[in-house]
Amino acid sequence: MNYVSLDIRIGVSGVRQISTKRVKFHDQVAGLLLKEGAVITRVGSQLTSPIDHKKYVHHSAYIKQVLADTLTVASDSDGPLNLCIIDFTSNAFVSVRDPLLFALADGIKESCENGLCVFFAVLLSELPGPNSSSFQQFERMKELLQPEFAVFFIPDSGDYHDFSSKRQEMPKFPEEYRNLIKIMYGDPSSKLERKCIRRLGHFQSYDPQNGTSRCRIYSYYMIDCENELSFLFSDWWREHGNGYKSILFDLKNNVSFRNVVKAFGSERDILTERIVDVLQSVDLRKAVMQIGKAVLVLDAFETGSTLNHYIKNLRAVGIEVSNEVVVCINKSGAKISRCGDNHIYGFVSRSGESELTPCLQCNLKLPFLPESHESFLRIRAFDMFHMISFSSWEPEPLEESPENKDLRYDTLPVFSKILEDFGDWIGFKIFNLLHSNPLPDDFFVIHPDEADSTALSNKLLSLFDRKLYIVKIPKNAIKEAQLAGNSWNRVVSKYQKSEWVERLSSVGDAGAIILDIFKGSGSTLISLTRLLQHFDKAPFCYVCLVDFDPGQEHLDGSAIPKHPLYNWYNPRVLLPMWR
Amino acid sequence: MQLDPNIEEDQVHSCRTIAYFLSKYNGNDDESQKVRKILQKDLCWRVSALSVIDRAIIMAEAWYNLLPGDIKQVFSPDALRIGEFDTLMRMKKDYRDVSIVTVIECELRAVLTALGSGTPDREDMRIGDFRYWFGEIPRYGSKPLSVVVTLVGERRNVPCAIAVEQLLSNFDTKLLVLVGIAAGPKEKVKLGDVVCAKKVYDYEHVRLEVQRFFGLLLKIARPRPQYIDVEKEIETDIEIYDDKRMKTYFRELVGKTDQQEIRVISDNFEPSFHTGTIAAGEKLFADGSLSRMFKKVDQEIRAGDQEDSGFAQVAKIKKLKWCIFRGICDYGDPKKGDAWHFAAALSAASAAMTFLKSAWKDER
Question: In A, which residues are within 8 Å of B20 by CB distance?
Fold first, then answer.
């Protein structure tokens, strides 16, 4: 049986090869939807279907054209098609607007009437609302079209909606599809682990039991993880939460989890209140007492001091508390642990932190930083030297230094070690830095193909949910271009067949973010800018971990905004100040 | 080198850190010498952006950190009183979580009573013409809030704006709160009630024009009113605030207060909590025009006073969150008197304290 699949990329202008992982995912989805035991063959285009912002904003019906072209070409060459998969899962649900789905409905109707295909599976991260106009349009279509016609809207949860006159029962489908999504995008637990970033700073936590504060150099932050937390909390509730009708929480340092817990409570009619409010309000206290045992939800568990304090005070006012406690981060070293009679269930585990007494940062009069957000886009000097204290110093590696060996740095921090120990946070800082400026609708990252830059771009890849396009330029090619006065004509011809040239040719109108570990004289930045100009691409900005030449704002006359995470005055050639 | 505070830490802090880390590379081995050189180069570049005093202090600290260990042993930082350098530095601004502004003396007394600390005649700090009182607001399960209270001493928007500006030049803070008394439209509020601003309506923005009407020259005042909204986050906190706490706390404070001052309050009096618009201009309402404004301009008006516009505008310019609590002491009509001043200020103070204690989220 033949099927065709479209990998829709909203906001992207360049056509790219559909990854083998995604092709396999489509094969497996087709396997679930088509007849059991049948031989399934994917036909048609091997490339993604981009819908850039211009088409997206001004021409929602463009999708109709994409669908018609794909189905016509595939059925002309491979005969009748049994299934068409339209995959939107690479896009955030919010970017799949209703007019687009409405136009898709028209496209599906036309394809059906023209006999190109009658079975469609639309893969989306969530189901659109039943009152949305696209949903209504699909409902109307099933009345108009032949009985074989079927459209399935399949959300990540697998609980599909069947728009067909003859409903098909597939009881095992949701679970099987959920597993495929987990394989494709990673399971929520490991995604959450990746998104839980250990930050550096000067933090202060308060122990309500003793009324004392202590300083910490680390704090944890969760980025854009409502979906994962929602999945894990619902999962926990299914297994352990039966019978409980109230949730009492203290989630002041984890806004995402607080939103998730409150939404969960309101959807299921569970009384969900802050612990502090319950302790202070007689009415709330009475309401909780009437309902029965409450489940405690906290942002972190470490020594148990806060938990014990809450349990003691809640019990003192007559509130019964379950001995099953949910925490977002369990700092006892394991996700599940015990604290006296209480079972602590964490979604992420981290090891505890040593207390800082006396605090060096307090001695230096460095201000405290809030836990709920990053105060500065850049890295503080203390954090930089803290990271360096875990690595060591080395001369600049020969293979990464300029041709003129006299310009080589005789000592630098070992950046590979810094990235190994603190790469998640550095990646997160760059992620924040990029989002602090208006990003182009479509962008890609370009960097020299060296271990440290690759380690950094991998961190970004995981923060962008693997939806980041990366082009790595071999160091040799950069050096060859530099020797030719930054002329890329011959170098590009020489490497015509290589992956990086192919990737650069396929990025469409996307803006380039040039990434580097450090900038000494700016020679790599100039070379990469010229390379982009050779391909008629616009460099959007330059991002690096350390800028050793912070005075130089615009290099080579080009006005590319520079975004270093840390400025450190140490340019390759130290010129007198008057120059 | 101009730095945006949201992008990068204070340059004094980064210089101080580098000056400290220089001491880690104080040795004569090859690596220490190389690292020291690049740290010194960076420090020289950074301090060039500092003020003369800050620059001198940082360089002195760096110099001290590079002294050989045996000299440091004899001349410890305490012996050289290096810690005293701090008093000269630019970063001498004190920090308080919340800054409370009061306009007249009875408002200050009410706030200090609600804080449970200090007396109006004994301030904790005086800088120029402005006096400051310090206190703490305990909060359940987290660190107490540190508070500074100031007194404007004079009615109207401009003196209030000057006092807030002065306060902010001496203190870093997260939230500005104005606690005081005001007139209210009797259609909506009663004496002793509290109004918390969702927006401030500055009715004084007027364009004066001359128009000819059947040959006569008429002076026309065209209103161009200005609205200043509280921040969304504060509005949310106000919405979730439970006013029962205010009522309980108010009764508690009444028990601690000189009964002569609150003689207007009956035994079963309970202030109500309102949210809405506060009209602010330069005029003291004593002619019933507040009620007319409520009926004709904005039916969300719950109070009228002479300071809120200046207060809110400074807060907005300084990008600080703000909120206003006003106790109703009269109806702005010819019958207005002073009898309710302290009681109204006390109910506003009890609302402000309980709001800060239970509803305001200082970390988001």
Answer: 360, 364
